[in-house]
Amino acid sequence: MSEPTHAEIVAKIIEELKSLNEDFAKVELSGETNMTTDIQVDSLDVMELVFSLEEAYDASIPVNELSNVYTINELAALVQKSR
Amino acid sequence: MADLLDKFRNIQKVHQHVVGLTGRDPLGAPFEKMLSPTQAVIDGKECVLLGSNNYLGLTFFDEAIEKAKTALDVAGTGTTGSRMANGSYIGHKALEGKIADFYNMKHCLLFTTGYQANVGFLSAIAGKDDYIIIDADSHASIYDGCKLGDATVVRFRHNNVADLERRLKKLPEGSNKLVVIEGIYSMLGDRAPLKEFVRVSKENGAYVMVDEAHSLGVLGENGRGLLEEAGVEDQVDFVLGTFSKSVGTIGGFCVSNHSEVENARFLARAYMFTASTPPSIVASAGATIDHIKKNGKELMKKLWDNTAVVYPALKELGFKVGPEMTPVIGVAMPSLEEGIRVWNTLYENGVYVNMALPPAIPAGKCLLRCSVSAAHTPEQLETVVKAFTAAKHAAEAAA
Prior knowledge:
By secondary structure, chain A is mostly helical. Chain A is built from 5 helices and no strands. In chain A, 22% of the residues are buried. The interface between A and B is medium-sized, with 10 and 17 residues.
């Protein structure tokens, strides 16, 4: 698999979020969206989102590093780093 | 900026919502009188306890009660400090020997609770540059132990051997790795595919820890849990367990054949900085472990016979139960409101079960967690099945 770009991962995260929760499909999401304060993604949704991204990009993201992730851009950067 | 107390206010709103919908508090039910290991008066109503974790029904085991009473007379109500500071009572050392002997292992460390065993051991064993690899459905004490330490924590999909293997292969070659598995998972009641987990862990140079909290006295010919049932006792490095389920009291332990584990006493903060197990608890746990050694097979047969009544009946009624038949039966509810309605109907029909809400449950909105006991009588099991049948009819009427 070729190296995914940051923008591709951001788009994938937005797609996954919208499929996880119908409320997220109703709002505009971007790389700047804060997943904690803007759309309040709960811990179970985060876990499922991370599993999906790890499988899509053959990544393994340490749980400890997720506590510093708030925006979709930050999560995309972490996925790239964890491949 | 949010006020410091807003976190409490927010959770208070959720709690009040649940109490408002239920008409009583399923998250804090008042147990007014214990009638037996499987029967209690709850909020004025006599109920069969189907949410107690009392798998072998030994909370009223007469010998354990007698020995606890004697220990109270002889050694007092508590140790008033940690073993580091206040020393080890003879009973502490004797119980450690008894548990090590039960598991055929050389070393045992007692902790004051099972929660503290996981938190203390995990935070002590793995440090910076080490890796702990955990199942996504791990108990909160495993997550908390990881959070307290400095290791990098990697999470794999629940009970997924291929995902564990993929992640192990991504870790730096030669790094220290500890794979953490549970015997029976506490919410859905499913077993880990332990033999396969152990194989891929060992192939990738990882140590293996198994938390047998819900499988001690439940699985294995002698009640030693999933590692005995799976035939991997000689390959598992650390076994963590609790006295608060099958052993009917409170306390935790870690057993191992690695002599270095003894030094966790000087590293595990949950061992060092809390009061040690009171003498009466030590005495009752010891008596009950002896009883399980002698009579465990008979008790486990009753437990599984009872499970074979409840699990198929609930499944037959159309309830969404866990994937396999064990004494831990998680019944998934489609919504919080439906969960509350079923919980209420069960209570009104004389059956108490646990209500679990996110984030304590792996998926879904609400789980009614049932646990079968060897001490349930045929009449009590009939009450249980009748209560679930009433809940089903109520759901059909409401639809």
